[in-house]
């Protein structure tokens, strides 16, 4: 397994909820095996835009996501956390192009308090 973190300096001081990324990384390990390379490659990137939008990307080297992909407990919990803290100011997407990744976009700060 190989992994890489591409966390921009300006986003490092931002707080995100505990365990938000854990299920995504667990899934990347579980489903990220590439038969051709014989390895699991995981890339985690995070940036923040000028309007305080946080963008988090979790890439893995596994097969592309299916259109009718079912989500398990981990992804369901991530969706609940995002909805509770960021109401309608977030998205979570499963992207295949140009690279396969899970993309979380959080517009602005949380409207609720949480401990990070």
Features:
116 residues, alpha+beta, Heat Shock Protein 90, six-stranded mixed sheet, 34% strand
Set out the fold topology:
Elements: E1 2-7, H1 22-31, E2 33-34, E3 39-48, E4 53-60, H2 73-86, E5 90-95, E6 101-107
Parallel strand pairs: 1-3
Antiparallel strand pairs: 2-3, 3-4, 4-6, 5-6
Helix pairs in contact: 1-2
The name of the CATH superfamily reads: Histidine kinase-like ATPase, C-terminal domain
Nearest-integer average pLDDT: 88
Element pattern in H and E = EHEEEHEE
Please describe the biggest sheet, giving its number of strands, its sense, and whether it closes into a barrel: 6 strands, mixed
| Shape call | globular
Please work out how many helical segments DSSP would assign: 2
Q: What percent of residues are in strands? A: 25-35%
Unreliable stretches: 110-116
The radius of gyration is 14 Å
User: Which structural class do you get from the secondary structure elements?
Assistant: alpha+beta
CATH topology: Heat Shock Protein 90
- End-to-end gap: 27 Å
How many strands in all? 6
Name of the CATH class = Alpha Beta
Domain count, please report it: 1
- Tell me what the CATH architecture is: 2-Layer Sandwich
Helix content: 10-25%
């Amino acid at each position: 397994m190989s992994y890489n973190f591409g966390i921009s300096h300006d986003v490092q001081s931002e707080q995100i909820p505990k365990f938000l990324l854990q299920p995504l990384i667990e899934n990347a390990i579980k489903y990220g095996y590439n038969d051709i390379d014989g390895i699991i490659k995981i890339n985690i990137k995070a940036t923040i835009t000028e309007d305080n939008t946080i963008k988090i990307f979790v890439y893995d080297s596994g097969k592309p996501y299916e259109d009718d992909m079912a989500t398990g407990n981990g992804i369901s919990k991530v969706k609940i956390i995002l909805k509770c803290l960021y109401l309608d100011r977030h998205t979570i997407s499963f992207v295949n192009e140009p690279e396969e990744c899970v993309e979380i976009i959080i517009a602005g700060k949380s409207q609720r308090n949480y401990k990070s």
